[in-house]
Write a structure and sequence with these properties.
The complex is a heterodimer. Chain A is an alpha/beta fold. Chain A contains 11 helices and 21 strands. Chain A has helices at residues 17-28, 53-58, 112-115, 117-125, 143-157, 184-195, 246-252, 300-310, 404-413, 457-476, 548-568; strands at 3-4, 8-13, 33-36, 71-74, 82-83, 201-202, 212-213, 219-220, 256-259, 262-270, 273-281, 287-297, 337-341, 351-359, 378-385, 417-424, 433-441, 447-452, 481-484, 524-525, 528-533. In chain A, strands 1, 2, 3, 9, 10, 11, 12, 20 and 21 form a 9-stranded mixed β-sheet that branches. In chain A, a hairpin with a 2-residue loop joins β10 (262-270) and β11 (273-281). In chain A, α1 (17-28) packs parallel to α7. The longest helix of chain A has 21 residues, at 548-568. The model of chain A has no long low-confidence stretch (mean pLDDT 96). The longest helix of chain B has 20 residues, at 2-21. In chain B, 47% of the residues lie in helices and 0% in strands. The model of chain B is unreliable at 1-40 (pLDDT under 50). In chain B, α2 (53-66) crosses α4 (81-89). Chain B is globular. The chains are: A alpha/beta, B mainly alpha. The complex binds flavin-adenine dinucleotide. Flavin-adenine dinucleotide binds at residues 13-19, 36-39, 91-95, 98-100, 102-106, 230-231, 262-264, 298-300, 303, 353-354, 502, 535-536, 546-548, 551 of chain A.
Chain lengths: 573, 238
Amino acid sequence: MAKTLKKADVVVVGLGWASSIVANECAKAGLKVVALERGANQDTSDFLGAHDEYKYVNNFALKQDLSKESVTFRNESKQMALPMRKNYSFDVGNNVGGAGVHWNGMSYRFLPYDFELKSMTEQRYGKNKISKDYSIQDWGLSYDEMEKYYDKAEKMMGISGEDKSPFSGKRKNPFPNPPLEKTTMLHKFEKAAKKLGYNPCMVPAANCSQPYENSDKQSLGACQYCAFCEHFGCEYAAKASPLITTIPSALATKNLSIITHANVIEILHKNGRASGVKFINTLTLEEFIQPAEVIMLGSYVFNNARLLMHSKIGEIYDEKSLKGTLGKNYSFQITPSVNGFFDEPFNVYLGAGALCNWIDDFNGDNFDHSKLDFIHGASFRISQNGARPIASNPIEPGTPTWGAAFKKASVRNYTRFTYIGAQGASLPHNSNYLSLDPTYKDAYGLPLIRITYDYTKQDRKLYDFMLPKLAGIMKEMGARKFYTSPKLTNYGLVSNGWYGSTHIAGGTIMGAKKEESVVNTYLQHWDMPNLFVVGASNFPHNPGYNPTLTINALAYRASEGIIKFFKEKRLLA
Amino acid sequence: MDKKLSRRSFFKASTLFTLASACVPSLAFAQEHSDHMGVSTNASRARIFFNNQDQFNIIAEACERIYPKDELGAGAKELGVAFFIDNELAGNYGSGAKDYRMPPFIQGAKNQGYQYPITRAELFKLGVNALNEEAKMRYKKGFLEISDTQKDEVLKAFEADRTKFSFGGMVKASDFFAELRSMTLAGVYADPIYGGNANMQAWKMKKFPGAQMSYTAQVLNEDKFEIIDPVSLSDMSH
Ligand SMILES: Cc1cc2nc3c(=O)[nH]c(=O)nc-3n(C[C@H](O)[C@H](O)[C@H](O)COP(=O)(O)OP(=O)(O)OC[C@H]3O[C@@H](n4cnc5c(N)ncnc54)[C@H](O)[C@@H]3O)c2cc1C
């Protein structure tokens, strides 16, 4: 028998960025919040001396434990989905702070075009620009409506940046901190991009360029360019994470209690109202019920969708009839790139997670698509986030991948290599979605989430279009030799053993209409007004940037909704 | 100029600031200099996973072919890579403690990834035996007795799934090879605390400075190319 705990005003599921923002805002508003996090507690002192590539990258120290829970994957519905048995593709967060602890910190605002993708595309190119199989839609909120939430998120995170990209939406306030310092490589990129007529700019970084006190009176340190961001926690408290911002702020109100090792397995509900959640203590395997007035899911894309499916809330998307919205519009990212080999060496070992220079000239609708057979685009960026020696063994095509020639080439090239990566938008397609796996279960007997996903025609066109543009910049940068990434084949979990991207979207999408979304623009569930769902799972398509700043802005929006709900007790849309 | 100067003092201030705010338990971080770390001939080291010395030696030889000693410096043997792999096989890596291991095990498309019921510990035992058998089938001698060129031929056959030896459908030779290659590189370049990369020789070759605390000075000094003596985690101090 599950033991029932004392009722909370708000229970948040998971404690990454999304949940911790909601927890903080609600706690500050005087609501009693309980956070249920499946992993353990951690803090900055855990990361002292954690410059250990083998532990944190190869052995995924901070990441989801696949022995408890994984995902299954197939390219198309004819195939049988198989579980991801080893960690290849997604570095899902697993402890207090979530992936917001081991992320890089690149913090872009999405383009105004992203929020009104469908209407702006139709307005400029007519209704038939792309096939009906692509279920693109407006998000229900415009960029202008999002601006104040972006501003809040940036001030809380202490974003360091410069307002120089002519394509970005209008900002009311400047960035809270000046941009990070440029390195030689970044200067080279900037010069080359300018020469080609593009508009380079420093990527907004959640790696603080100077000490900063945030909007909640929490302190962040200055980035030391130590290059242990991606996959690592920051020992300088210089990379914004829930551990040093939202969580201490919420705890200071005394209105937040955190229960760790609490794996939520079900949302309990009756007559269209959620009453609480059931969770299992992962150490004792005891079951508990946590009743609450409002429930907020911030358990990342996969579990946001999975918990709704498993709890039978909403209609699961069906590929054949196209009915249902839950699980719909799952999208990944399209990532063409170019590798450059130089004669002269660089300090490739130093950097910061978001120490990058970027151009947006080929992103969104920033260039004319009337003669092109795809829409949207990609942002291009050069990253100096620190090349680590196990992972970075750059060799030119044709060089053996082991043995004497490999050693010679990879040792020499290590300091003479860089790449320009593009993050291309991924549009939703009818045949790409999330559902429950019929075969494979997690450690607690719940079905795993099943990904059905492959690249589509639009993705391939976008990818091919970007390659020569990327190569052009690398050439201008003076690389001795450069090579663009290979042709897009089928999407797979295994991407040459490299870490791919944890930027996935969709599954519990937002929108202005119930027929085409799971949650409204307050991230409130259409069928259950006291249930809110927040994360990249809300994005109806995946834009050409990293997701987190927008997740966080949406979390501020959801917080506003939850506080409003306590007054109005109804659907807010 | 002025901007740089003021930024420089910011960084200085911030170092103090973070030390205070992060409540550093590791101010007394281990200072011990561990010269003996990772030297493969050290008396304090012995295999803990492989049952017999030949198995260990075969792994050591195969790793050396993947990352050989040359004029740049040490190869896998001298770096202690076989000890690293042996140790890892005895622990979480070998048992796949963080892998999803629930049945059914069905072989799918390549892009669906590893789908074998066997652990990496078992994979390596099968693999080591297979290297030896392949050598015998090709050259009538065990893997330890054949020439370097012949060892390379055997490894190439594994890499391309062209072995004469059959794994009976249990695994692909190339899966073992891929794992062996990536563990060799991990042993070469991981921090010496894991038992490879003896005396940080591999980092020195590659000009990777190891576990440094801060590169702010380099960045502010126009990011001029600089070779820095590496430090290991066992030496890292706050
Ligand atoms: C290596 C890496 C680099 C990245 N770099 C960037 C970047 O530069 N810029 C950017 O924008 N994004 C980046 N990201 C992505 C970013 O980390 C995520 O978008 C963001 O952290 C997601 O926040 P979230 O709160 O939605 O989810 P998460 O951070 O995943 O938090 C969800 C929490 O819920 C918990 N949880 C899940 N299921 C349950 C359950 N059933 N019961 C209880 N708890 C549960 C998890 O343990 C986790 O703590 C990066 C990610 C990785 C892995």
